[in-house]
Amino acid sequence: MNTRAPMTHTGSSSQLTGSTSPPAIELEHVTRRFRTPKGQIYTALRDLNMSVAPGEFYAIVGPTGSGKSTTLSLISGLERPSEGVVRVMGKPVQGIDPRIGYVFQTDAIFPWKNVLNNVTTGPLFRGKPKKQTLQQAREWLARVGLTGFEDRYPHQLSGGMRKRVALAQTFINEPQILLMDEPFSALDVQTRNLMGDELLSLWSSSSASVVFVTHDLEEAIALADRVCVLTAGPATVKGIYTVDLPRPRNVAEIRFEPRFIQLYHDIWEDLRNEVMISYERAQQRGS
Amino acid sequence: MNVLSNEVREQATTAPESNELKSYSVTRRRRSVLVNVLRVLFIVVILGGWEIGARTGVIDPFFWGQPSGIWTQIVTWVTQGTAQGPLWEQVAVTLEETIIGFVIGVVLGVIFGVVLGQYRFLSDVLGPYIKALNSIPRVVLGPIFIIGLGLGIQSKVALSVVMVFFIVFFNAFQGVREVDRNLLANARILGASQRQLTTQVILPSALTWIIASLHTSFSFALVGAVVSEFLGSVQGIGLLIQTAMGTFNNNGVFAAMLILAIVALLMEALITSLERRLLHWRPATVSDITI
Question: How many helices (H) and strands (E) in chain B?
Answer without folding.
Answer: 13, 0
